[in-house]
Amino acid sequence: MKRLVICLFVALVAMSIKAQQNLYVGGTLSIWGEDNATSFNITPEVGYHFNDKWAVGGLLIYSHTKSNGVKANAFALAPYARYTFFEADQLSLFVDGGFGFSTVGVKGSDNVNGFEVGFKPGISFAVTDHFSLLAKIGFLGYRDSYLSNSDSSGGGLSLSSSDLSFGFYYTF
Fold first, then answer.
1. Which backbone phi and psi does 170 adopt, to 5 degrees?
2. Residue 112 sits in which domain range?
């Protein structure tokens, strides 16, 4: 399963790079440690701008967590459609609407599969014509065991730090 997801993502990137018109690549990276827990996340992103307002893209998420000696690895694939509703000079406000599928494995137990569907607002700042910094905060939607090794589900609005990400992207 992991190899299939990675192969599909690489194929998508390869096809997109060939087009190289309005294509963007980027992502986020995070490392977090507290008490007896550490986590590491890497999230590459690729997308395509159709025009000034609309884009489509996808995220491939890998997360590794170690807490009290227990290790967990998570993978997720999350395609989205992005609508930019405000632009002023280098600043843009957007919302990503999409869904994601995840699987979390903990050594010695069964994998937990999950999904999410919803909206994530964000802000982008164009440093140059090709390089932009961005931040996404919050989630409005429904999650069922998404990127979690527990059987949890629920919906609503979340503005927690776990729904905050900083990243960049490069537009060709």
1. -115, 125
2. 2-171
Give the C-alpha separation, 77 to 74, whole Å.
10
The answer to whether the pTM exceeds 0.70 is yes
- Is-contact 63 87, C-beta < 8 A? no
Structure tokens at 77: 């694939």
Give the domain CATH number at 137: 2.40.160.20
Torsion over CA of 92, 22, 130 and 127, rounded to 10 degrees?
0
pLDDT tens digits, 1-30 = 566 556 556 655 655 555 556 899 999 888
Q: How many domains does the chain have?
A: 1
Selection from 97, 169, 104 nearest residue 138 by Cα: 97
pLDDT in tens, 95-116: 999 999 999 998 888 889 999 9
